[in-house]
Amino acid sequence: MLKDYRDWLESELKLLGNASHHAYSFGQANMAKRALERLDEELARTLYVPLDRAQARRVLTAIEALGQQATNVPPELDELREAVKTALAETNYAGSGEPP
Question: What is the model's pTM?
């Protein structure tokens, strides 16, 4: 999905670059260029794992079950649990229009 978005931004940049004699096109091309740079920065430091909501809820449930069974859960699993919880809350909020 992010690769598709990046490819789209690149195509927009090329398209707008061809019409750069218009001030509006020049501004749009600059915005597309900045968006590509920010996306590249984000992709360079962040790993995205595509999970649908059902998969994410199952992963969260499994991690929470591990936490209840074990006395010593690695901190990395706690971080993953929090990240999945936050992502689910944010997607639920975005779809519902209500605060998380």
Answer: 0.55
Task: Please state, in angstroms and rounded to a whole number, the distance separating the CA atoms of residues 49 and 82.
Answer: 15
What average pLDDT does the segment 11-17 reach?
73
And the tokens for 8? 């789209």
Tell me the C-alpha distance between 33 and 93, whole Å.
30
- The pair of structure tokens assigned to 80 is 């993953």
Query: What's the angle, vertex CA 38, arms to CA 35 and CA 52, rounded to 5?
Result: 90
The CA-based dihedral angle spanning residues 17, 42, 84, 72, taken in that order and rounded to the nearest 10 degrees? 170
Q: Where are the domains of the chain?
A: 2-45, 53-96
> Which pLDDT belongs to residue 22?
62
Coil, helix or strand for 12? helix
Say whether pLDDT at 95 is over 60.
no
CA separation for the pair 13, 7 (Å, rounded): 10
Of residues 4 and 80, more confidence is placed in 80
